[in-house]
């Protein structure tokens, strides 16, 4: 039996982030998009990089960040209250 899926480790946000896909897929679908997003978040929020913004200022000024924050809040709430 041959191995399926893929494994990738990316250094981002000051740590190694491991991505492990175990489904039977050809290549690495979606990996580039995930890595771009992780590096975008790192550049946007890192307290160690020049020009980074605080999460509060970004959330206040960005509709997409507000939407993401609301989705994440709902997801977290669902675990305890059934959002």
Short description:
The chain is α+β, with helices and mostly antiparallel strands.
Secondary structure topology:
Elements: E1 6-12, E2 15-21, H1 31-45, H2 55-61, H3 63-81
Antiparallel strand pairs: 1-2
Helix pairs in contact: 2-3
Any key phrases for this structure?
3 helices; 17% strand; alpha+beta; 83 residues
Could you walk me through the main structural features you see in this protein, from its secondary elements to its overall organization?
The chain has 83 residues and is α+β, with helices and mostly antiparallel strands. The chain is built from three helices and two strands, in the order ββααα. A two-stranded antiparallel ribbon has the order 1-2. α2 crosses α3 (63-81). The longest helix is centred in the last third of the chain and has 19 residues, at 63-81. The N and C termini lie far apart (42 Å).
